[in-house]
Amino acid sequence: MEEKKPKVGVGAIIVKNNQVLLAKRIGSHGANTWGSVGGHLEYKETPRQALIREAKEELGIQLTKISFLCCTNFVIEDKHYIDLGFSAQIKSGTPQIKEKHKIAEVKWFDLNKIPKNLFPPIKRYLEALKTKKAYFET
Question: What is the pTM (predicted TM-score) of this model?
Answer without folding.
Answer: 0.92
